[in-house]
Specification:
heterodimer; A: 410 residues; Formate dehydrogenase/DMSO reductase fold; two-stranded antiparallel ribbon; 73% helix; B: 264 residues; six-stranded antiparallel sheet; 7 helices
């Protein structure tokens, strides 16, 4: 039975070995579900967040996975709108990863906000002036788009496609996929931006407050560009990891190289704009709010180090690797650069979420510290486990990498 | 969200925000509806077999779909993009115009790329079988599941299936028609099919000088699927062995047959 639903021509591990691989993730999922249950049942005092530290590990990690999941919209945009055909080799994987990232983020948000049965209230009585309302609407719509994009991948399963109705519907859905890719790009553009804008408009927190173009602070644009840069890098990294774990060649080197080149070009724009934004903030924005920029870093060596790491080690260095043809020719360098780019996203979202809230807003206040509780950690590990399970099952029973069969046949 | 909901205000922010939101929702719903309606229409117009084939054809590797004019040596490397439906192909029409007047006698057999042959009979029906190459790839161990008499088969839909253990592969039907007779293993698995409306159009099938280079191309494709150390076991006395996959350990019958019979 198992063999007959594995795509034809693809080699997969025996069922027993596969189930053994799933076991730790299932256990982790169970632990995570219990953690989430505690948070929903007994409330947020199960976490180490409080009224002053209202955004914790969940929001930081949500922002990170949503940025990394941008590979889905950006790969779709490049393939269906800009016709970069080589990305067909990774589009299925990109959709699955996007679906996992966004659905996982929504689940964690539901636990964070609490009272999921009242989630409809946000939609029924929207505060149209709130960045978070825009984020809620866009993420919900985009998750719907991703679910629709995931459907053809499922329907193309070897057994399911023998049912004529599924095969015909999958084909017709595929024919209109470019519309969904366009909608996904539009939605992603706004919700990635609004997540950044959320911090940029906090004029009570000069550490993150930024000048605006129109109604959008610069962080709005920086979030979009950084997500667009990290998306292809995350695709490169996940494809390489899937290839290593499965022991199969999944795509040609040209695909890795193409993802790296695209990431490199966008990253160069991001590094440039991020540097300009930081310099402008030091020279104009922070002083205009009555704060000396150095005050944020006084006696906080970690803060300075993270800022330098973010721009230099996780920005400039991977950009240089991606844009050097000789280095791009070697997979090891591409994977290194992609890892650094993804770490850059992690650091950026950490700085904006955790450091921003840790810094005092009143002269007599002190820097806050926050360590997530085991229930918070468990809830997020649930998403990791869920992602691993969905991806592993999709990888086994769907053709996530169309080049795999060709490469196997040599 | 709506004007009648408590707290709704008519202002620019609300109109722009909700306007964009509802536009996105309408676009998503319309897109899915279009796909559903097209699918339903394909079934209503009995075109679902053709649509299904189009979907499968897109998943075939390039090597599996060389243009018939490339096989005949009339053009450089060229791949089919029309599901082997030559009547839809401008290039084919152009080549026919060039070759006008050179048509020879009607051949005895025509060949579909899925390794089914078609032999027109004098009573207007056709006999369909699997060609020698296809039969040797499938091998004598497999049994066939033929369609019942009276059942319709559709061009590029499933003609019949070969089964071996839990695996099964289908043979593409080369024409559309109604099965009026069939023969079992001893008679070499065949179907006799009568046309549904008007005589059969066999223009999409290979014939005459196209067949040999196509068979050579298929042999090369088969050899690529088989480990090099097994190549010498594939022939005996200069002829291809009867059960190709049985002569090479570790070779998956299902994978090899599906690749050769064009089932992705």
């Amino acid at each position: 039975m198992d063999r007959s639903i594995i795509p034809r021509g693809l080699e997969r591990a025996p069922l027993g070995k596969f189930l053994l691989w799933l076991l730790p993730w299932v256990l982790l999922l169970g632990f995570g579900l219990y953690s989430a249950y505690l948070c929903l049942r007994y409330g947020l005092h199960q976490t180490n967040m409080d009224n002053r530290f209202a955004f914790g590990a969940w929001i930081f990690l949500d922002l990170t996975v949503i940025a990394l999941g941008a590979g889905a919209f950006f790969t779709g945009f490049l393939l269906y709108i800009l016709k970069r055909r080589e990305l067909k080799a990774v589009i299925n994987s990109a959709v699955v990863i996007g679906f996992i990232c966004y659905s996982g983020a929504v689940v964690v948000l539901m636990v964070d906000v609490g009272q999921p049965l009242r989630a409809w209230f946000t939609f029924w009585h929207p505060n149209v002036h709130s960045m978070l309302t825009e984020v809620t609407f866009c993420i919900t719509c985009y998750l719907t788009v991703l679910a629709i994009e995931y459907l053809p991948i499922l329907l193309k399963n070897r057994k399911l496609r023998q049912i004529p109705a599924f095969l015909v519907f999958e084909f017709n859905l595929h024919k209109v996929m470019y519309v969904l890719a366009g909608v996904g790009t539009f939605l992603s553009f706004f919700h990635q931006g609004s997540l950044g804008g959320l911090y940029g408009v906090l004029n009570g927190r000069p550490f993150v407050f930024r000048e605006a173009f129109g109604i959008w602070p610069t962080t709005f644009f920086l979030f979009i560009i950084s997500a667009a840069a990290a998306g292809p890098s995350f695709m490169l990294l996940t494809t390489w990891i899937a290839s290593k774990v499965s022991g199969k060649r999944l795509v040609t080197h040209y695909v890795y190289e193409s993802l790296g080149r695209i990431s490199g070009y966008i990253l160069s724009g991001y590094v440039l704009l991020k540097t300009a934004d930081t310099l402008f903030w030091i020279r104009d924005t922070a002083p205009s709010l009555g704060v000396h920029p150095a005050s944020f870093f006084a006696n906080q060596p970690g803060y300075t180090a993270l800022h330098l790491l973010e721009v230099a080690l996780f920005g400039f260095l991977p950009m240089a690797i991606f844009l050097t043809k000789r280095l791009r020719a070697r997979l090891g360098w591409l994977v290194t650069a992609a890892t650094l780019t993804c770490l850059g996203i992690v650091v950026n979202r950490y700085v904006l979420t955790i450091q921003t809230l840790a810094l005092p807003t009143l002269p007599f206040a002190e820097v806050l510290s926050y360590v997530p509780s085991w229930q918070e950690t468990g809830t997020f590990l649930m998403v990791i486990a869920y992602g691993m399970l969905v991806y592993s099952i999709s990888f086994r029973y769907s053709n996530l990498f169309p080049q795999e069969r060709e490469l196997r046949q040599g | 969200m709506f004007p009648w909901v408590y707290g709704f205000e008519w202002n620019a922010g609300t109109v722009i925000f909700l306007g964009l939101f509802f536009t996105v929702v309408i676009v998503i719903l319309t897109t899915v509806t279009v796909a559903v309606v097209r699918s339903l229409r394909a079934f209503a117009q009995r075109k679902h077999h053709a649509v299904g084939w189009e979907a499968q054809f897109e998943d075939l590797g390039r090597e599996a779909r060389p243009c018939r004019h490339q096989l005949a040596g009339e053009t450089d490397q060229r791949y089919c993009r029309h599901g082997f439906e030559c009547k839809d192909c401008d290039f084919h029409r152009k080549m026919l115009d060039v070759a006008e007047g050179e048509a020879g006698d009607a051949p005895d057999r025509y060949f579909h790329r899925g390794h089914a042959w078609v032999r027109p009979e004098t009573d207007g029906t056709v006999t369909i079988g699997i060609d020698d190459f296809g039969a040797k790839v499938v091998g004598p161990r497999a049994r066939a599941k033929l369609p019942r008499i009276g059942r319709r088969i559709h061009e590029n839909g499933t003609g019949w299936r070969f089964l071996l253990g839990d695996d099964s592969v289908r043979v593409l039907a080369p024409v559309t028609g109604e099965v009026v007779a069939h023969g079992g293993r001893d008679e070499g698995w065949y179907l006799r099919v009568k046309p549904l409306d008007g005589p059969f159009d066999l223009g999409h099938l290979l014939q005459g000088p196209e067949v040999r280079p196509w068979m050579e191309h298929e042999m090369a494709r088969l050899l690529r699927l088989i480990p090099k150390d097994c190549h010498s076991d594939l022939t005996r006395d200069g002829r291809m062995v009867d059960d190709v996959t049985a002569h090479c350990s570790g070779l998956d019958w299902d994978v090899v047959c599906a690749e050769i019979l064009l089932e992705p």
